[in-house]
Write a structure and sequence with these properties.
With about 70 residues, the chain is mainly β. It has one domain. The chain has helices spanning about 35-40, 55-60; strands at about 10-15, 25-30, 45, 60-65, 65-70. A three-stranded antiparallel β-sheet has the order 1-2-5, with no helix packed on it. The chain has a two-stranded antiparallel ribbon with strand order 3-4. Bound molecules: zinc ion.
């Protein structure tokens, strides 16, 4: 069986900044994965819009990673 101890499973959802409406593919941790917990701390959450610089309170953007929308 393949070892998954260091793997973080993620889901990608479309997301848009509430300030500048920039669109992203936001990477979120997959829910319900029991071995995810210890590894979440290793990831720096992005809190805010990387396009206009608005913080999380106004942009409502938070994710493990923000990818450009296709
Ligand atoms: Zn923005």
């Amino acid at each position: 069986m393949q070892k998954l101890e260091d793997v973080v499973l993620a889901e990608i959802h479309p997301l848009a900044c509430h300030v500048c409406t920039a669109r992203f593919q936001a990477v979120y941790p997959a829910p319900g994965i029991p071995f995810f917990g210890p590894h979440l701390a290793a990831h720096q959450l992005i809190r805010g819009c990387t396009v206009c610089g608005s913080d999380f309170a106004t942009s409502r953007l938070q994710a493990l990673a923000l990818l450009p929308a296709p």
